[in-house]
Specification:
The chain is α/β, with parallel strands linked by helices and 123 residues long. The protein has a single domain, classed as Sandwich (Hypothetical Protein Aq_1857, Chain: A). Helices cover 20% and strands 35% of the residues. The protein has a five-stranded mixed sheet with strand order 3-2-5-4-8. Strand 4 (54-59) and strand 5 form a beta hairpin. The chain is globular and about 40 Å long. This is DUF779 domain-containing protein. InterPro entries: DUF779. It comes from Rhinopithecimicrobium faecis.
Length: 123
């Protein structure tokens, strides 16, 4: 199976830091105005999912959910979770206290990849 999601070493290291401080985490990428389509990191269960939102995978045990409408647009793309210095647009995500922002790098799946994608989970 081809994973829909992976993360850079820098993002994984930051996730481990946040897990030590906050416990179980989750990610949500909404695509709305305030968060500027950046992935947001929350304590697990502290963000309420909508019906039909899509979980595209796990990063270090953290569910990565995408807004149902955004997923329809990006369903043919691989997501790579990365982190950069600075506070993102929304500032609601747990990493902002460390002056960091999670971001996604996208690439389109090949025709071959599309035949072997890992399944998603719907809310």
């Amino acid at each position: 199976m081809i994973a829909r999601l992976n993360a850079t070493a820098e993002a994984i290291a930051l996730i481990h830091e946040l897990q030590q401080e906050f416990g179980e985490l989750m990610f949500y990428q909404a695509g709305g105005c305030c968060e500027g389509s950046q992935p947001q990191c929350f304590k697990k269960g502290k963000y309420y999912l909508r019906k039909n939102d899509a979980m595209i995978g796990l990063i270090e045990g953290c569910e990565f959910w995408i807004d149902r409408d955004l997923f329809e647009y990006w369903q043919y793309s691989h997501f790579e979770l990365d982190v950069i210095d600075g506070i993102g647009v929304g500032g609601f995500s747990l990493e902002t206290s460390r002056m960091k922002t999670f971001k996604i790098k996208y690439r389109l799946f090949s025709e071959e990849d599309l035949q072997h994608l890992s399944p998603i989970i719907r809310k």
